[in-house]
Prior knowledge:
Layout: E1 2-10, H1 17-30, E2 33-42, H2 48-58, E3 62-67, H3 72-83, E4 88-91, H4 100-112, E5 117-123, H5 129-146, E6 157-160, H6 177-183, E7 188-194, H7 212-231, H8 233-260, H9 269-305
Parallel strand pairs: 1-2, 1-4, 2-3, 5-7
Antiparallel strand pairs: 4-6, 5-6
Helix pairs in contact: 1-4, 5-7, 7-8, 8-9
Amino acid sequence: xxxxxxxxxxxxxxxxxxxxxxxxxxxxxxxxxxxxxxxxxxxxxxxxxxxxxxxxxxxxxxxxxxxxxxxxxxxxxxxxxxxxxxxxxxxxxxxxxxxxxxxxxxxxxxxxxxxxxxxxxxxxxxxxxxxxxxxxxxxxxxxxxxxxxxxxxxxxxxxxxxxxxxxxxxxxxxxxxxxxxxxxxxxxxxxxxxxxxxxxxxxxxxxxxxxxxxxxxxxxxxxxxxxxxxxxxxxxxxxxxxxxxxxxxxxxxxxxxxxxxxxxxxxxxxxxxxxxxxxxxxxxxxxxxxxxxxxxxxxxxxxxxx
Length: 306
């Protein structure tokens, strides 16, 4: 008998939460599962918390965690993950765009096959064209930058709790969980799941969804740099430092050659300033590389003590 923790953040989902819990409980019974259903009420301003509290009093499977204020999907999900008691976590939305009865067994199958994480890929029509377009562009950029064999980073997941034991995600970085897990070498499998357009409640995506793309792109660049930096900071800083020093040296050699020929340097003052800038920048980047190596060594020492 498999034991799992279902984690479902909820923000103003009073119209969906009861049906979601009912479907999830049926999924437990139909698939001979034990464990818990963790509802993280993320500072809802409607009756979501009250409804979930009443359900938790009647259903032993259900646990309710109330956030005093809305901290976002990443923060709410992380609270649920950290409070999960079981070794397998299933992450689902509480808005019923995913059907727990269908998707829980689909997500658990790859874990039985030896994978560490299963990631759902949305199949079917999506009424919110702005949201679907934004999601497509974001996933395409992530695929190009990280080469992760997953087409839908922000959708439902099931994973062994150990894969997130040493991860910390910043605000709105829930979409990058798969990237961090893949970077650590865990085995990931993508599975097709049916997308169900929302029938009750309102989407929290907002009408300015496309404006989130620049932020998502910068997050991707930041994470790419972070993953590279955390392993070989001197390689990152040192590479750029070497490029600047080489360019500065070439420019300096050219100016020295001009001086030897007896030609005036005044007309070439902009080049002289550029040479000085390149050399100073190169030295500074090397210094930052040494400092970064020192910080990484301190962090690794702290992690070992933990």
